[in-house]
Write a structure and sequence with these properties.
The protein is α/β, with parallel strands linked by helices. The chain has 3 domains: 3-66, Winged helix-like DNA-binding domain superfamily/Winged helix DNA-binding domain (Arc Repressor Mutant, subunit A, Orthogonal Bundle), CATH 1.10.10.10; 83-160 and 265-287, Periplasmic binding protein-like II (D-Maltodextrin-Binding Protein, domain 2), CATH 3.40.190.10; 164-262, D-Maltodextrin-Binding Protein, domain 2. It contains 9 helices and 11 strands. Strands 3, 4, 5, 6, 9, 10 and 11 form a 7-stranded mixed sheet that branches. β1 and β2 form a beta hairpin. α1 (3-15) crosses α2 (18-25), α1 (3-15) crosses α4 and α2 (18-25) crosses α3. The chain is globular and about 70 Å long. GO terms for molecular function: DNA binding; DNA-binding transcription factor activity.
């Protein structure tokens, strides 16, 4: 099975339409159809269910897609490592990171690193913690800047910093004048929270459980700015990281006094996959070694 045909299969699996996939790949439809036939013959099973002119990836196809993506990523990683060994000042770093770090931490670190190593390029992926971790496991990313710490059995970890969590309340709220507050003081408040299984939501669930709170969740958001906007509108309160510059002035952030009200942000990478020199260099840069 040729690597190029695996790449074609991935595109076809993502579009589930021969005409669209052929146009994206720049090949003819008959060429793509013949390649799919060869892949299915080698797999010994159909990888799509045919419904009219559409294709629907079936159970066999989902297995093939998982391993095709991993195989393509491994070959690309090998090429990157070879290129980096030939010229250690070039190469690529495939970096995945959290949504909530996209507007300050990650851009600043990339800017600083590019000043030191301008020829090293980056492939960037932004997403929630579970997708970031899975991307590393699947070979689609070399490093991840994430929180909370993923499974230690599968990931190596270097802590970058720890940030305190606070209770976000609207201006004029009864708790807004506090210098610190225990989460239990907000037990009867409606909460705006992130969706499961987002990392901050998992941390918040732990804090609620520790405080003996069965929260009334009025809305589950996909990003922290949405939570802050709903808090400002008076929908409820929320547990969020202490904000950086440019925070919503309609929201008051009261530090939580709970000892575990903190978020550890770190760099994660696969234990079973050696890092290419550019990624190793970026790791050392972030860790200050």
């Amino acid at each position: 099975m040729h690597l190029e045909e695996l790449q074609w299969f991935v595109v076809l699996a993502e579009t589930e339409h021969v005409t669209e996939a052929a146009a994206e790949l720049g090949v003819s439809q008959p060429t793509l159809s013949r390649a799919l036939t060869r892949i299915e013959q080698q797999a010994g099973a159909p990888l799509f269910d045919r419904v009219g002119r559409r294709l629907h990836l079936n159970e066999y196809g989902r297995i093939m897609l998982e391993h095709a993506r991993r195989s393509i990523a491994e070959v690309q990683a090998a090429l990157d490592r070879i290129a980096a060994l030939r010229d250690p000042d070039t190469g690529r770093v495939r970096l995945a990171f959290l949504h909530s770090l996209a507007n300050w931490y990650v851009p600043e670190q990339l800017r600083r690193f590019r000043e030191a190593a301008p020829k090293i390029a980056f492939d960037l992926f932004q997403g929630p913690a579970h997708e970031v971790a899975q991307r590393v496991l699947d070979g689609g990313a070399d490093l991840a800047i994430t929180s909370p710490r993923p499974d230690p059995a599968a990931f190596a970890w270097h802590r970058l910093y720890v940030e305190r969590l606070c209770l976000a309340v609207p201006v004029g709220h009864r708790l807004a004048a506090r210098s610190r507050v225990s989460l239990s003081a907000a037990a009867d408040e409606p909460f705006v929270a992130l969706e499961k299984p987002l990392g901050l939501r998992l941390l918040t669930d732990d804090l609620w459980a520790e405080a003996g709170i069965d929260p009334e969740i009025v809305f589950e958001a996909s990003e922290i700015p949405t939570m802050e906007g709903l808090v400002a509108a008076g929908f409820g309160v929320a547990v969020v990281p202490v904000p950086r510059e440019g925070a919503d002035t309609r929201v008051v952030h009261v530090p939580l006094s709970n000892s575990r009200a903190k978020r550890e942000v770190g760099l994660a990478w696969g234990r079973d996959r050696p890092l290419a020199p550019p990624s190793e260099r970026f790791l050392q840069f972030l860790s200050g070694t």
